[in-house]
Amino acid sequence: MCSTTTILQLFNTSRLLICNKSQHAIRKLSVSSRNEMRFVQYRLKTGGLPHLGGQITQDGDIFDISNVDHSIPNTLTKFLATGDDVYERAKRIIASGKSVIPLKNVDLLPPIIKPDKVACVGLNYSGHCDEQNIPHPREPMFFSKFSSCIVGPYDTIQLPKISNSVDWEVELAVVIGRKAKAIRSDQAHDYIFGYTVAQDISARDWQKTRNNGQFLLGKSMDTFCPLGPAVVTKNKLDPNNLNIKSWVNGKLKQSGNTKEMIFKVDFLVSYLSQIVTLYPGDVILTGTPAGVGMHRNPPEFLHKDDILESEIEGIGRMRNTIQ
Question: Which of 76, 101, 157, 221 is at a distance of 20 to 30 A from 151, taking alpha carbons?
Fold first, then answer.
């Protein structure tokens, strides 16, 4: 049983058909397109297994998708690998208004766990190149992070004892929705599922001078890839015009816009697909704007008890404590 006021507050959309008071039943709202969908993974504060959920507003309450239909996987990576039919069933669950969980009752997990790959693009913002006084690249520079370093939007980032130069890099992350191999740029949109916020945490000493100059270890230490808070489906966002920011202890460190990308999202997905097969759930970090710690004067790095916040317009904000 519900009231008109409660439902309007929950959905906040003109597509909602309000409760029929005479029948005391919830009428369905339209979720006919992906531009209303946000996917999260979470665990109830009371404990139990992870769940896959959906939201229709940023920081809104959660529709418990995998608990309503147990045939739907409880992780987004497996969900995406299942195909379009499961997506349609998820939309119907949200439309029915069943099993709504207040956001305050859950702990948000990374929206993507155990992807086949986490690919990253370096030097992809004009401002980030300019702060280093280096020319803009003529082709993308890719490197990778181990997927084991993924943590959630509010999890702790652990400072490794073997580095004293741990830095921040807020990034827009692309989540692949369909298997993609050797696709054109004008096809890439069809293979993207959505976007989330990422932090490409980096041990600069290991990235630049240790491990013979290879990036992998400096980028892949435990907890070095916070993701979240949600994956927003692609039609809700213009990935080439989003404000992107990070703060350390409340002080703004990075403030840019994805329009500064040298290589745009569709090109990056197409380019990478020429080299490797992209699988559902794969994550591509697309670069960071100016303001990272290493290139500040004097250089700045993360310390124990610092609070790192990362935000992208239309997706949300992460808040990670450094330990």
Answer: 101
Cβ contact 60:103 at 8 Å: yes
Report CA dihedral (208, 294, 227, 158) to the nearest 10 degrees: 80
Q: How long, in residues, is the chain?
A: 323
Tokens read off for 120 = 């990253």
Q: What CA dihedral angle connects 106, 223, 132 and 291, to 10 degrees?
A: 30
pLDDT band at 84 (very low <50, low <70, confident <90, very high): confident
Tell me the Ramachandran region of residue 59: left when phi exceeds 0, alpha when psi lies from -120 to 50, beta otherwise. Answer: left
What does the pLDDT look like over 158-208, one tens digit per residue?
999 999 999 999 999 999 999 999 999 999 999 999 999 999 999 999 999
H/E element, 173: strand 170-176
Q: Would you tell me how many other CB atoms lie within 10 Å of the CB of residue 47?
A: 7
Q: Which residue has the tokens 């990362």?
A: 310
Q: How far apart are CA 293 and CA 55, in angstroms?
A: 34
Q: How confident is the model at residue 2 (pLDDT cuts 50, 70, 90)?
A: very low
